[in-house]
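Q: Predict the bound structure with nicotinamide-adenine-dinucleotide.
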Amino acid sequence: MHSSRRDFFKSLAGLSAMAALANVYGQEKNLRDDVEETSLILKDRRSSFNMKSYAAPAIPHIRVGYIGIGGRGTASIQRLSQFEGVEIKAIADCYEYPIERARQWFKSIDYPAPAEYYRDEESWRDMLERDDLDLIYVTTPQYLHAEMACAIMESGRHAACEVPLAYTLADCWKIVDTSERTRKYCAILENCCFDFFEALTINMALKGLFGELVYGEGAYIHYIDPELIFQEPMPPLNKKGGWYRGIVGVSVKGNRYPTHGFGPVCQAMRINAGDRPLFLTSVETADFTRQKIFERYLEQGSDYHKQFVGADFVGNMNTSLVKTQNGKVVKIQYSTDTPRPYSRIHMLSGTQGFAQKYPEPSRIYFDHSTPLSDEEMEAVKEEHTPELIKFLTENALKFGGHGGMDFICDYQLIDSLHNGLPLNISVYDGATWSAVTPLSLWSVTHGSQPIDFPDFTGGSWANNAPFDLSLRGGGTTVVVPKTPKA
Ligand SMILES: NC(=O)c1ccc[n+]([C@@H]2O[C@H](COP(=O)([O-])OP(=O)(O)OC[C@H]3O[C@@H](n4cnc5c(N)ncnc54)[C@H](O)[C@@H]3O)[C@@H](O)[C@H]2O)c1
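A: Predicted complex:
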């Protein structure tokens, strides 16, 4: 390995440790330094291997492990235990109660009990010592994803990781580097790319039906009561979780959940497959809620909240703009604490058409004034819903998960591994979408100045193939519903 890269990866451990120990200001500063230092060191990095087109050897019988059996892990286990050619061999959490919930599920469907690891926060490492796993899901809180995903790939398994992959630029790079070096996948579980309207409009965009796409919008606008975020973390939140929700949650600015909105728009715009993000600029409103809640807690004599005295709380709405190499623009928004309807926006605007998912009902236009009628929408769906989605719709509705998109996301990953197909979503896509978090933090804390967007593909973006929602010679994976015993 080139010495500056070796030094860089040595410095990564230091960066994370410093960030964990820092106070509110130090914390934010270290995350900001992460962007500057990382960008400088890896400015001219070229890819060592192209994971986008890489087809790992087929695995007809996939032996699976899980780290994190909370909301997402539990739902994922319940879906995957109904796939043929998949065997869940081991599960890990840092508490027993999520493991007990999984135990009950496996028992209820007469599934062979997987091995259990739940001694403490490090038990998942024991699971990696096993020699009978091919794929490990990371369904833990997001501050743990990068460390776990890299350790999994280093141990010789593919990783399937919840969103986002990482929240520092250094960790985005580390994941890309580890994947290329080990030739193990790090699949981001970005289910929204497989939701019905997103998949339909991505397919239409890739066929050129909106003309040339010039602009897109995506978002994560999901109201979560700010009182909840600001409460003192109680067990079962572990120490690191408390730090993350407390300090990072209230005082580190930027878009902390970008992939649901950015991912599908990137797929439609051929980002990392003919185009690439060039730079990002981000603005954030002031805080109009947290300071007031914080003052009330202080008045009530809370010791926990004293750590936030003098903090510059995160704003209520973050808006980031990404300009691409080919001159296109994507707007990405993040807002969770002012009451408004849920929205990922998913808007695509081209020279010959327009699509927007939210507010529902979703609409498609081929002129400036009249949306397609309900009958026309049905005809468009019939003609342009991608092959993979059509093939899976019945089962998606049966097995569910956010209306079915979670099942489709599971299926396409497992089916790709069964058949030795390159992944639909590459490690470069996961890193690109996740990098909005550190880049927007940097921009917001530098007067909204633009910051260069890293090219995680190392130059291969120009020739990489776009998102492919055909069956690609797969579709052989069988799913058999298992009804839990009462
Ligand atoms: N794709 C989606 O639609 C979607 C939806 C919700 C959440 N998410 C993502 O999924 C991830 C998990 O979210 P969730 O809602 O399931 O959270 P959760 O808190 O319900 O579950 C997390 C689990 O991880 C366990 N855990 C924590 N530290 C651990 C450690 N050191 N070792 C082993 N286990 C540990 C916790 O005990 C818990 O059981 C998050 O990163 C979140 O961003 C994605």
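A: The radius of gyration is 22 Å.
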